[in-house]
UniProtKB/TrEMBL annotation:
This is Large ribosomal subunit protein bL9. Residues 13-40 form the Ribosomal protein L9 domain. It comes from the Bacteria. One of its GO terms (molecular function) is structural constituent of ribosome. It comes from Propionibacterium ruminifibrarum. The lineage of its organism: Bacteria, Bacillati, Actinomycetota, Actinomycetes, Propionibacteriales. Binds to the 23S rRNA. Keywords: Ribonucleoprotein, Ribosomal protein, RNA-binding, rRNA-binding. The gene is rplI. Belongs to the bacterial ribosomal protein bL9 family.
Amino acid sequence: MKLILTSAVQHLGVAGDVVEVKDGYGRNYLLPQGYAIAYNRGTAKQIEGIQRARNARAIRDNEHALQLREQLEALTVQVPANVSPSGKLFGAVTGSDIAVAVKKAGGPALDKRAITPVKPIKHLGPHAVQIKLTDAVKLRITIEVVAA
């Protein structure tokens, strides 16, 4: 089945791409969710409009992401966590925990899926975290895990 993507789909493409997928995936997931439209001669003309809008949005998003990057690099983020007497965490610090701590520290609201710890965070102290704002703008910050 040949489709035109209307939004980015992981491992498939970005808006405006023409993709060939299995019939069931296209019919049962991509089309009902609004991620794609059927490809034919009439909709092929829409590709240029979708790509033009995507390019304009990407430039605007990258400029905004660079501003957010500067703001995040200036923050001191402390993530509270429940700790055993030996200093080991009960569980691990997740991306959503970090996103909440960044918001409390005065930073922007981040998507938890954009935050990736370099190593699993299971102890108190400083830890490196990678944040992907856009495909072009990524940064690495250091967070401090403290006892709650």
